[in-house]
Design brief:
59% of the residues lie in helices and 5% in strands. Strands 1-3-2 form a 3-stranded mixed beta sheet, with no helix packed on it. Helix 2 runs parallel beside helix 4, helix 4 runs parallel beside helix 5 and helix 6 runs antiparallel to helix 8.
């Protein structure tokens, strides 16, 4: 009798587990509505309302960084779709650049270097050695610098080469050596004189055409 009772008890437990598993599977299958679960703690109310971003069955509130990035991207888009000239668009992006999020700054940097004319390049080039600028932004400006005329490229390569905290410093020094076919180590005053002399002896095509 004891064995039969024990079997009945075990059988009842197994049946109950089966019913619970079936119910859970049924709910996940979509037959019954499943309430979205918020991952934001209810005990910490947000200082400002946040727009939800849905991922699967979970509601993930947008963070302040998300909102800032979205707002920055909107401002960048407004400038790019305006009827202003390329130079005006570049200057507008430069004006808002410090207030943009890191993500928006990276996107804006691509547009700025594409829109900025050579004579306005010094307005953005200081970020080449700005340690507060992200590595991505500095890399974008540096890649663009290498495509600029020598009259712009060489002086800024010299600025980078004498800034050891910048990751491109070593490469900039090697480019100077390869271009001038000289090596003055860290004697930056001599480098400056030699760069000026080289540019006078080897003017850019546009500058040479203008002087004739």
């Amino acid at each position: 009798m004891r064995i039969k009772r024990r079997k009945l008890a075990l059988g009842g437990t197994a049946l109950l587990i089966t019913m619970v598993v079936t119910a859970v599977v049924w709910r996940r299958d979509g037959s019954l509505p499943v309430r979205a679960v918020s991952v934001a703690p209810d005990s910490q109310p947000s200082a400002a309302p946040r727009s939800p971003r849905y991922v699967g069955a979970y509601t993930i509130p947008l963070t302040t960084t998300d909102n800032a990035a979205a707002s920055g991207s909107e401002h960048v888009s407004e400038v790019l779709t305006s009827t202003a000239s390329s130079t005006a668009k570049a200057q507008a992006l430069l004006a808002m650049f410090p207030q943009l999020s890191a993500t928006a700054q990276t996107a804006a940097a691509h547009h700025i270097v594409n829109l900025l004319p050579d004579d306005s390049y010094p307005s953005f080039a200081p970020h080449l050695t700005n340690v507060n600028a992200s590595a991505e932004v500095r890399a974008i400006i540096y890649a663009d610098l290498l495509q600029r005329p020598n009259a712009i490229k060489l002086p800024w390569l010299l600025v980078i080469a004498r800034s050891p905290e910048v990751s491109q410093a070593g490469e900039a020094a090697l480019l100077l050596q390869a271009t001038l076919r000289e090596d003055h180590g860290t004697n930056w005053s001599v480098w400056s004189e030699r760069v000026s002399a080289w540019l006078q002896a080897n003017p850019d095509a546009a500058a040479a055409k203008a002087s004739n």
